[in-house]
Amino acid sequence: MTNSLPEIGFVRINEILKVFPVGKSSWWAGVKDGRFPQPVKLGPKTTAWRAQDIHALLDDIGQK
Fold first, then answer.
1. Cβ atoms of residues 56 and 16 within 8 Å
2. Which terminus in the chain has less CB density within 10 A, N or C?
3. CA–CA separation, 26 vs 36, rounded Å?
């Protein structure tokens, strides 16, 4: 799987779902359950995740 996420900064959900094999509703369920990182509100209608948190999640899953 090609990891096209930036090393630092923020990524939106559509970018995450390109490299993480789950659907949008499954992603949000994982966020709610604590399996996936918590998002950051960048504005009233803008939600993103820290790129470092997503890389750590992918690394953790790759080690299991």
1. no
2. C
3. 10
pLDDT in tens, 20-44: 999 999 999 999 999 999 999 999 9
Domain residue spans of the chain = 10-63
Q: What share of the chain is helix, strand, coil (3-state, %, to 5)?
A: 45, 15, 35
Q: Is 44 helix (H, G, I), strand (E, B) or coil?
A: coil
Sign of CA pseudo-dihedral 17, 21, 23, 24: negative
Query: Given this model, what pLDDT does residue 1 score?
Result: 45
